[in-house]
Structures are given as structure tokens and as C-alpha cells.
Amino acid sequence: MTIQPTPHLDALQRDGFVRIPSLLTPEEVAQFRAIASKATTLTRTGGWPHFRTVPKQFPPWPTTPPPASEGGIWGVQHLLHPEMPNRADFARFYFSEKVLTVAEELLGVKRDSNGAEPLVMELFNLLVAPETKDFELRWHRDDIPETVGPEEELRLLESKSPQGKQSHAQYNLALCPDASLIVVPGSHRRVRTEAERKAGPYEAELPGQLVVELQPGDAVFYDSNILHRGIYRGKAEGGEETRLTLHGSIGLKGDEADGKVRATAVLQHGVGAWVHRDDAAFGIGERAERMRANLVSMGTGEGVGFSLQG
């Protein structure tokens, strides 16, 4: 029996991230940049109610975007929402073979011939440049509070990725040159060092840190519990968009306990409020519908709380 190579998974397990160049062609980049720009303009001008706002880092988000003079928004939420313009195009990317094939490798799954779907539709958002000012995220792991001690931190790391197995594949896909993500390679498999614990939340330099540089069409898949932060350079008010990065996650269907592990991280963003709607069907194939059904089974998200605060 021939063992299939898994270069993306090998890199993810070793480093906590894997950069994949040219996941999109230049023509695809141009198409998605155009519709992502429209979605951003719509959101900045009050036409789309789901967004991430400066200076908040984590949900829940305000219901009114701050003015551009205060930084405005840094993200557009729910690209797969039934009312999002160009939703069908965003869905074709999210459920595309080129994305799902990478996710399958990283999650260690193969498609079941009997029709059972191992993947779960999770989140698909857009990260954008704030206006008029820079915005920084503090050092964090997405699903582990920085306040925990070393023993609890190790327990949580092991429970989130037992035997190194991921429960989801999270990625950034750049439509503009992007050097926003900063990671500490290998930190997804260990507790923080003494230097990392003593560092300030916005420490400019941690030992071994790496800036993940992406060109348009490049993607980075990363373990969401790698120690990381983001630095987003502000753009001129009303000027051309300087950052448009598709930010998605695809889950792995598991047992009830596994589902609870992901429920808070996913449903805290509000996707459970609309994914069950009759008009939320994608119409682009049975697999997309099965993945959506797997998310619907997680519930609406009421009462799940939030992974992190701030």
C-alpha cells in the first residue's frame, strides 16, 4: 500500500502554519478582489451590519461601525450569509476543490463513498485595512486565554489538538500583498516560555517570531492556537483598499464532545443565527449542503459564550 505524501500537514504539525503560494490564479485574484472591495465599501457605508470594529479584537462586536477617524472596521463578517451580495461567488471559493483538498489533508480525512460528510462549514469572513490609523492585535491563541498557568495551558493545548490532530483548518487567503500575520513557529505544541509570559500584550518582538508574507493568491493555513498577533496598517480614508484577505475555517465533524470544543469558537460569531434558514442553501452541489447541515447540527449559538475577551 502506497503512503500518500502530506507536505502541507507535515509543515503544519512542525511549524504551526503552512504557506501555499498561488492557490488562486491572477484572474481569480482579480475577480475576488473586485467583489471583496464591493463588500468592504458596502460595510463601511452602513449597508452591511456584520463587521469587526477598531479597537476591539474579539466578539461581541458593536452594532454601529466607528467613524473612519477612529479606524472604522477591520473585518467584514458572514460572506456566506444569504443576503451578502456576490455570496454565490464567495461560496464557490469556500467549497472549491482547491480549498477542501488542502483541508482534507490537514484534517487527515478522506471522502466516504457512502456519502457521509466529514467536513463542517464554519466561518468565512474578510479582513480589511482600518482607515486613517494602524491597528494591532495582542499576542494570543484563538481558543486559550492568556491568563492560564503553564499546567492548564498545556492541558488545553493537548485537548484542542489531541495527538496533534486538528479539529479545523483555518486560513488566510490574500487578495492584496499582506504581511499582517506574525507567528511564533512551533508554539502550537508547547506552553509559553518565561520570556513570552513576561512580554507585553503588544510586544514588538518575541524570540523566533516570523512575519508571514503573502502575495495576492497566496494562502496560509495555520493552527489557531499558535502564538500569533496581527498588525494592520491603516489606509487613507476613502482610498483604494490595501488589505483584502479572505479568512476562513473548515471544521472536522466529530462526536458530541468534539462538537462542544468547536461550538463556542464558531458560533460566538453569530453564524448560527442564519445558517439554518431555508434561503441559506447554496445550490452548488450536495457537498456544500452536507457541510452546511453539519454546522446546523451544532445549534444556533445561543448561550455558548465567547472564547476570549477584549
In short:
InterPro entries: Phytyl_CoA_dOase-like (IPR008775). With 310 residues, the protein is α+β, with helices and mostly antiparallel strands.
Calculate the mean pLDDT score and round it: 89
Q: CATH homologous superfamily - what is it?
A: q2cbj1_9rhob like domain
Total discrete domains = 1
Strand portion, in percent? 15-25%
Query: What is the level 1 CATH name?
Result: Mainly Beta
What is the ordering of alpha helices and beta strands? HEHEEHHEEHEEHEEEEHH
Q: Distance between the terminal alpha carbons, to the nearest Å?
A: 50 Å
CATH architecture: Sandwich
Main beta sheet, described?
Answer: 7 strands, antiparallel
- Total beta-strand segments: 11
Low-pLDDT parts are 301-308
- Output the CATH topology: Jelly Rolls
